[in-house]
Design goal:
Helix content is about 0%, strand content about 40%. By secondary structure, the protein is mainly beta. It has a 4-stranded antiparallel beta barrel with strand order 1-2-3-4. This is YwbE family protein.
Amino acid sequence: MNGQKRSDIKPGLEVDIVLKKDQRSGNVTRGIVKDLLTKSPSHPHGIKVRLEDGQVGRVKNIHT
């Protein structure tokens, strides 16, 4: 699943995010969702989340 729909993402899920500094390179960071920061039901670039380690980025992939 991609990370464009807010309803697909819940705290505790393992996801890949793209950090702001990695937007040009496309490097992804894997972590566990702590908070959802995007309020709208969807976002074309991915829902913005905070990981448990404090990093913030947009979800690119959800691991089940």
